[in-house]
């Protein structure tokens, strides 16, 4: 009977000791919420302060990580502890677009993967993808892209100058306005980092032809000497009837109405039409001077001097012959005629 009583007392004592231990443990244990780099976890702990808790959980901090509340803060029930992990900042440019972002990636390649960027062998990355990430690193990505593009392009018109004697010398006048044409060009363009690096023309279709601009330009009126090739500027031209005359001797000593002696290049005129002394060019006869008159020379008629009667017969009478009044009235007719 005594043994049973002792056993009962022993069991009661053990139960009470166990209950007291559980109560003591429960009074020491606390529930905390740990937010580590946005990852939330709940723990039950008997740690006295934040530092002890992190040691129990084998959580290590870098020099730049921050903890809230401070490491020496006493643990209380339902406490929230937040760890902000420091991340290096990456400044990156993708096809000319600049951005900055913090990252936990260890290399440039991991960082680009985190952005969802897939590169091929034609793309360019600086620095290389195996470069270790450091704070404020600059990363440049240039992707290569080939596009087929269609665009309208102007076709420049041509300016043409047409010489005319209908305008004063040096005067210009636009007789037809120029207008650009239009062509449709199909191109294959290669871009690297958004910049054009190569271009090939695949097709060209003319939509509208250009219209040439025509500019009239006044030129000096001139006649080309059929005998010497010399060009003589003129101010006026007549269409005349022409006859021929000579003298019975050699003709060089005979005087004319102007006081000059006759020579091949002397022309008899009507002074009312062409004044005496005027330097002219006669079609088929050459450079000459209006230096003589005649009773039958009235109006638009000229009488050309030749050295012989046979030449006069050969010339005969001609109609519609052009007679040009030369611009240069200082020309030496006799000197010019020596080139014939």
Automatic annotation (TrEMBL):
What is the native source organism of this protein? Candidatus Cellulosilyticum pullistercoris
Q: Which PANTHER family match?
A: CELL WALL-BINDING PROTEIN YOCH (PTHR39160), RESUSCITATION-PROMOTING FACTOR RPFB (PTHR39160:SF4)
Where does it sit, as one GO cellular component term? outer membrane
Q: What biological-process terms (Gene Ontology) are attached?
A: peptidoglycan turnover
Q: Which residues cross the membrane?
A: none
Q: What is the protein named? A: DUF348 domain-containing protein
InterPro entries, per the entry: 3D_dom, DUF348, G5_dom, Resuscitation_pf_RpfB, RlpA-like_sf
Record-annotated G5 domain positions: 141-221
Q: Which GO terms describe its molecular function?
A: hydrolase activity, hydrolyzing O-glycosyl compounds
Give the record's keywords alphabetically.
Answer: Signal
Instruction: Give the residue range of the signal peptide.
Output: 1-24
Q: Which Gene3D superfamilies match?
A: Resuscitation-promoting factor rpfb (2.20.230.10), RlpA-like domain (2.40.40.10)
PROSITE patterns (UniProt xref): G5
User: Which top-level group of life is the source organism from?
Assistant: Bacteria
| SMART domains for the chain | G5 (SM01208)
